[in-house]
Automatic annotation (TrEMBL), chains A, B:
Organism: Alternaria atra
GO molecular function: monoamine oxidase activity
Domain Amine oxidase: start-end pairs: 48-484
EC number: 1.4.3.-
Family: Belongs to the flavin monoamine oxidase family.
Cofactor (UniProt): FAD
Taxonomic superkingdom: Eukaryota
Catalyzed reaction equations: a secondary aliphatic amine + O2 + H2O = a primary amine + an aldehyde + H2O2
Protein name (database record): Amine oxidase
UniProt: substrate binding residues: F379
Keywords: FAD, Flavoprotein, Oxidoreductase
Length: 498, 498
C-alpha cells in the first residue's frame, strides 16, 4: 500500500509524493458506529500509541486507536522501494535500549537486525569537507577524531559526566546538572574552543547537530550529556547505540507486530485518516472530537500527540500553564534526512561530513540496493535548513556536495534515486525527534509528563530514558497503558461495589 | 516474615538458619481445591516464573504458580536485617539490561537504585594478595590493571570480540565463534600467558572466576566473551552492567511488584512450600504431581526449574535425548557469596582480591549499615569451595584473609555479622547463576530452550541475552507466557468453532 507520506524522486519519474509502506493500514477503519463508550481512546499510532493500545487491549480493555495519518509508526516508518527498505525517520535500535529490545526479543526479531556499517568494501574512508579544505582519513582515525573531541566536550567533572549524570533515567539526580541545562552546545564549545583542533571542532559540531537537528545555540548541553550518559559515556557507545543496528526489512516490520497483536485481541477498534481537533473532559468520560466533527467517548484518553503538535488540539478544560508554556517553547529538531541511491558501487564503506556550508552535513554508506547501487543516508537540520522536495536540483547538489570530486578521480556521484520525508512540513510531527532548547527540561519536564484530568499524556518527547527515541515511545506507552488499566479496574470495582 | 533459606551469624547469637525476607509469602497458598483445570501452571516463583505468571494472568489466563520454597525470587532475594538489605543472590541491575529495566521503569523504580561503589571514604584502595606478595593500589590503577588484562584476554579478532560476537543475542551469529566454546578460560589464558604480568594474571583469573563460579578449566571462554559483548566489549561496561547498581531496599522489593501485580488480577492461584515431583503430559492436559502427591491439571505448563535441578523432576513421556544430555552436563557455577558486617568504618571504599589460596577471592565495600559498620560482600566458588555454615571460624578466616594486616597498622578486621545463602546445598538451585562449561552451549542451547509437548521450559539458564541474570529470567518468562497465551487463545477459538 502507498502512504500519502514521503517523497521519491528518480531521473525517470521525477518527484512523486507518497511512497509504499507496510505500515499503511487498510481498510483504514474497523469502527461500525461511534455510539460505544470505550475504556480508553489512544490518540496517535506511533510506537507510543501502538504500545499503549496493544498493552491495554491485551490486558482486557476496550480500546479505540485514532490516527491522523494513513499508517502506523508516527515518526518511524520504512518504505520498501525496489525491494529495499528506506527508513523515513527513526531507524536504529540496540539491545542497550531496554523498552525496544524487550519487544525485539518478545517478537523474536533478534536475528532480524543488521549493521548499517560495512567497512569492508571499496572506498573505506571518511571524508571531511570544511572551510579549511577537504581531507580523507581512515575510519579508525575518524573514530579517534570524534572520540577526542567528545571527551573534551563531555568532561564536565573529570570523569566524562559520570558524576554530573550518574543515573540518566533520573536526569537531574545530581542537582549540579541543572546548570548544564542552562547552557547551549554553543556555550560549551566556546568554553573548550581553545583545546579543539579545527578538524575536531568540525566533527564535534556536526555530530552535535546530527543529534539535535537544531542549531548549536538551540541545543541543550544537558540533553546532549543525557544522550552521552545513556550511551555509556563513550563515543563508541554512542555509535553502537545511536546509529548502528537497523531492521533488515525496515522499521515498519517492527511496528506491524504491535498493531497486529493488538488487532488479534479483538478488543481494538481503530480509525486512520482521523485527525482530532478537540478533547473534552466531561464528568464521567472524555470526549474526542475529530476534525470532521465525529465524536468518540471513553473513560480515559491517552494522547500521544508530540509536543510540537499539541497546540493544534484544543482542550476543555484548558491545559495548565506549565504544559502550555512547554508547548509554546517546543522542541528544536528540524532534521532533514535524505536517502540517495547512487550508482557508485564503491561507496558502501564511505562516511562523510561537509560542514558548515552545505544543507546536508553528515552522511554514511548504509547499504547496497538490489540494483547494486550504493545507498547513502544524509542528514541536515535547522543549522542550514531546506525542504528537499521544493528544489530537487538543490537537494541533489546538497547530496553531491558531501563528496569532493578530488578524492574520486574528479568524478562526482551519480544519483539514481532520492527518498525522504519532510518532517518539518508534516502537520502531525512539526519536526523530527524531540530535542530541547536550553531550560525546557529543567523547567518543564514534569509539566510535559503531567496528566490533565482523564487525559494521560504519553510521548517519547518526555520519556525518562531514551527520550526522543523509539525506546522512549515504548517506555511512555507502557507507562500510560498501565496507569489507565489500573484506573479502569478501580472504576469497575467501584461500580461492582455500588 | 522469616524464610527457611539463608544463614546469619553474629558473635552474640551464633549461627542461625533462616533469615527474614519481604519475599516470604503468607499465607503460603490461596488454593481452595485441586479440582480446577488451570490454563497454565507455572512451576517456580523466581523472576522467570513471576514474569510468566504475571503476564499470563494480566492477559486473562487462569494461572497456578507452584513453588518449592516459602518465598518468591528464586536465586535472587534480599534479607533485611537490622534495617539493612543483604542480597543473598542476584543483585545488580542496569538500564542496559533490557528486560529488567523495562520492568524497573514500568514499576517506576528508576529512582530506587543506588551504587554499590562509593570511593569517597576512608581507605580508598584496592588490595591484591597473591602468592607473589601483597600490594595496594588506587582504584584507578585497579581499573587500568583489569582493563589491560581483559583487553588481552578478549582480543580474539583484533577488535576485542566485535567480529567474533557482533550480535550477542545471536550467540553463534558468526560461526567462527563456535570454536571459542570449545575453549576453556584456562586454554585462553595459556595462549596469552606470556603477555600478562603476574598482577594482571591474578586480577584476570579472579575476575573470570567471579563471573563463572567454576574453575578456569570448567569455564567456557565463549560464554565469557558473550558477557563481554553484552557489556559493550569493555571493562568499564562490565563494571557498570554487572556489579554497580542495586535496589536501595533490596531485590525482594522488585520481585514483590511482579507477584503483587499478578495477585491483583484475581486470576492467580499459588502454592508455596510445594515442590513438584512429576510432570505428566496427557492427551488433553498436563498433570503436575507434587512431592506429597497432590495433583494439579492445566492446559499448559511452564517449567522454570533450573538446569541443575531438572534431574529431580520426572517427565512422562521422558525428555528427549538432547535435553537429557544437557541436564547430565549441567552448569558449573558454585559461587559462594558471603556478606560480612565489620566494625572497621574506614573500609567502605575498599576493594580486594586474595587469590588463589583463599576460599574467598574477590570482595568490595558495599555499604554502611545503620549500626555504622562497613558491609563488605565477598565471593568464592568452585576453585576453592567451602560451605560457609559448616565451619564458621574457617569462614571468618576466609573473610579476614581478604585483608592483609600490613596495610592496616597490623590490625585485622573485626567481623560483627555474617550473612549468606549456600546455593550449592540448595535443592532448588544446586548452584548459583548458570555458567556453562565448554561445549554445553554450542551443543545444547537449542535443546535446553526446546519445549516438550505441553511443557514450555523457561529459565535464565538458557536465555538469549543476559543469560544467568535476572534479565534473562524476565526475558524467558516473557517468551513463555506469550507462547502459552497464544496457544490457549487458539484452543478457545477451536472450541468455539466446534
Amino acid at each position: 500500500m502507498t502512504s500519502r507520506d514521503g517523497y521519491c524522486w528518480t531521473p525517470k519519474d521525477g518527484l512523486k509524493a507518497g511512497v509504499p509502506s507496510l505500515g499503511v493500514v487498510t481498510p483504514a477503519s474497523n469502527i461500525c458506529s461511534s455510539e460505544a463508550t470505550y475504556d480508553v481512546v489512544v490518540i496517535g499510532a506511533g510506537y507510543c500509541g501502538l504500545t499503549a493500545a496493544r498493552n491495554a487491549s491485551l490486558e482486557g480493555l476496550k480500546v479505540l486507536l485514532l490516527e491522523g495519518r494513513d499508517r502506523i509508526g508516527g515518526r518511524s516508518w520504512s518504505s520498501n522501494i525496489g525491494g529495499y527498505p528506506f527508513e523515513m525517520g527513526g531507524t536504529w535500535v540496540h539491545w542497550g535500549q531496554a523498552n525496544t529490545w524487550r519487544e525485539v526479543l518478545r517478537y523474536r526479531m533478534e536475528k532480524d537486525i543488521e549493521s548499517s556499517f560495512d567497512f569492508s568494501k571499496g572506498v573505506k574512508h571518511f571524508e571531511l569537507n570544511t572551510h579549511q579544505g577537504s581531507a580523507t582519513m581512515s575510519h579508525e582515525d575518524e573514530d579517534a577524531l570524534l572520540d577526542s573531541a567528545l571527551k573534551k566536550f563531555t568532561n564536565v567533572d573529570g570523569v566524562y559526566g559520570r558524576v554530573m549524570i550518574p543515573l540518566p533515567h533520573d536526569t537531574f539526580h545530581n542537582p549540579g546538572s541543572i546548570a548544564l541545562d542552562s547552557q547551549s552546545a554553543q556555550n560549551r564549545i566556546d568554553d573548550i574552543a581553545s583545546t579543539l583542533s579545527p578538524q575536531e571542532r568540525a566533527a564535534l559540531e556536526t555530530f552535535i547537530l546530527l543529534c539535535s537537528g537544531g542549531t548549536l545555540e538551540t541545543t541543550s548541553f544537558h540533553e546532549f550529556m543525557h544522550w552521552w550518559a545513556m550511551s555509556g559515556y563513550t563515543n563508541q557507545g554512542m555509535m553502537d547505540l545511536l546509529i548502528t543496528w537497523k531492521f533488515r526489512e525496515g522499521q515498519s516490520t517492527f511496528a506491524r507486530r504491535f498493531f497486529d497483536e493488538a488487532v488479534a485481541t479483538k478488543r481494538l477498534s481503530y480509525s486512520f485518516n482521523t485527525p482530532i481537533e478537540r478533547i473534552k473532559d466531561n464528568v464521567s468520560d472524555v470526549e474526542i472530537i475529530t476534525r470532521t466533527g465525529r465524536k468518540f467517548r471513553a473513560l480515559r484518553a491517552i494522547s500521544t500527540v508530540p509536543l510540537n503538535v499539541l497546540s493544534s488540539v484544543s482542550f476543555e478544560p484548558p491545559l495548565p500553564a506549565g504544559k502550555q508554556a512547554a508547548i509554546r517553547i517546543g522542541h528544536v529538531n528540524q532534521t532533514v534526512k535524505v536517502h540517495a541511491e547512487i550508482s557508485n558501487k564503491d561507496l558502501r564503506s564511505w562516511t562523510g561530513i561537509t560542514y558548515p556550508y552545505n544543507e546536508l552535513c553528515y552522511a554514511i554508506g548504509d547499504g547496497t540496493t538490489p540494483a547494486g547501487n550504493t545507498h547513502i543516508v544524509c542528514f541536515g537540520g535547522q543549522n542550514k535548513h531546506m525542504d528537499p522536495e521544493t528544489d530537487i536540483p538543490r537537494t541533489q547538489k546538497a547530496v553531491s556536495s558531501m563528496f569532493n570530486p578530488d578524492h574520486y578521480d574528479g568524478k562526482s556521484v551519480d544519483i539514481q534515486r532520492l527518498v525522504f520525508h519532510n518532517w518539518s512540513k508534516d502537520e502531525f510531527a512539526k519536526g523530527a525527534w524531540f530535542f530541547p532548547p536550553p531550560e525546557l527540561l529543567a523547567k518543564h519536564l514534569d509539566d510535559m509528563r503531567a496528566r490533565h484530568g482523564k487525559v494521560v499524556f504519553a510521548n517519547s518527547d518526555w520519556a525518562l530514558g531514551w527520550r526522543s527515541f523509539i525506546d522512549g515511545a515504548i517506555e511512555e506507552g507502557t507507562r500510560a497503558a498501565l496507569e489507565v488499566r489500573k484506573e479502569i479496574e478501580d472504576l469497575r470495582t467501584e461500580r461492582a461495589t455500588l
